[in-house]
Fold these 2 entries.
Entry 1:
Amino acid sequence: MTGPWPTGTDDRPAIVFDVFRTLVRFDGDHVDDDTFGFLADWLGYRGILVDDADLAARFDATTQRHLDAAPGQPPDVEVVGVWEDVLGSLPDPRERTGADRRDLATELALTYRQITTRTLEVWPGTEEMLAACQGVRLAIASNTQRVYTRAELERLGLWDPFEVVVFSSDVRACKPDPAVITTALERLAIPPHRAVYIGDNAYDDVTGAGRAGLPTVLLDRGTPVPDDVVLEEPLARVAGDDPVAAVEIARRHLDAGPRR
């Protein structure tokens, strides 16, 4: 990865984190036959009449169009924009303005997330891991949707510690595409050698961070990876039940000094 890099006023090194299976235990994306029926009923109460099969087909087709237009390899979408386009394709007797449609799309996206999620909780040891980062700048670079995950991190008390937060929906690219991580570094105004990534995925996280020019401390939590990929060696592997050790290794690599 090459500069030039802007010169920030804060020259402290940074630790950049993944979210799911790193900071947060999550079990979601449980889409079944009832999901779009519920969403169709939800829209019906707001004056937009559509059956569940039609809604599901519009959502899938619109998502694919957005993926095809995204720059990432692999790509991502901004799901509120997807729902905006779906709503714009449906008859709406209330003739909502663009801003009103955006608000409705946001609420629809959050409802979708809520009804397809089974588990959302702080991963054991996360608070201790973040406490061990005192004196180091903190950022997030994660494959997820801003509309969902900001609300989830705020709900779990995990939003405020982070100076910079970048999601794949922001850049329309998913790790191992480096865009989500390089964007976080640019917003921190630091070069890659002043940062370490901590994540749980031996492919997405290690490869994505490597392409962005920084090493990864891998939290080994048994996260599956594709069968047909070559895995790079992380800076270190740490047992999933000892996340503080990941921070200590990162700090030593960065020579960040003792915790303050």
Entry 2:
Amino acid sequence: MTQQNLDAVVSDIYLKTHQIWQATRAGLAKTHDHGFKILYAPAQYEPSTLVIGAQPGGDATHMLDAELRHPSVRNEYLSQSWPLASELRKRFGTIFLQGAIGTNAIFFRAPSWNTWLTIDPQLRMKLENFCVAENKRLILAMRPKQILLLGWDALGLMGGTGFRELVANRPSDGRPRRKRLLMFGDIAGVPAFAIPHPTAAWKNPPVSDVDWAMIVAKINQSP
């Protein structure tokens, strides 16, 4: 693969995603027909990190014609102020994100994960299977050095092999159950880390600043 091959694959993924979106819009209805978002930065061959969330948030007001046709013209993790971008900059720093390209396990927008789960199950499974397959194709064409999965839903969708716990901690209130902080495995032949979703990490049990420091240090130690 080369950059030229990658560009061809990315163009085809956008075309196929647009086609399946158009074909299923009637089934999505107004509550779920919010378009899609694939890449949050220009496609780059062999980037340092491919960041994969579960699915893009937002509603119909966030649906832009340009993002239905091609990747973002700049790295949105560095240029945008939405909560996830801000939290990633806070936790990982701009140097880490300069070499990162973002996408989602599911390309299609929904205001929240719970909203996405209310789609007709057969249609949802069809769309999820399509997106995961295209993501595996993207990984093979892009050949990132590593993958960073944002949240356990993203890990569940993308699957992978050999995932094991690298970092965990006990809640500060002394409860016996541990916080799962970092998993490590393999997706399509690429080393992959999974972490708590940064914008939902305040939930029970919360992920502290100390926890985040451990997560980031462990990822930065990876070869």
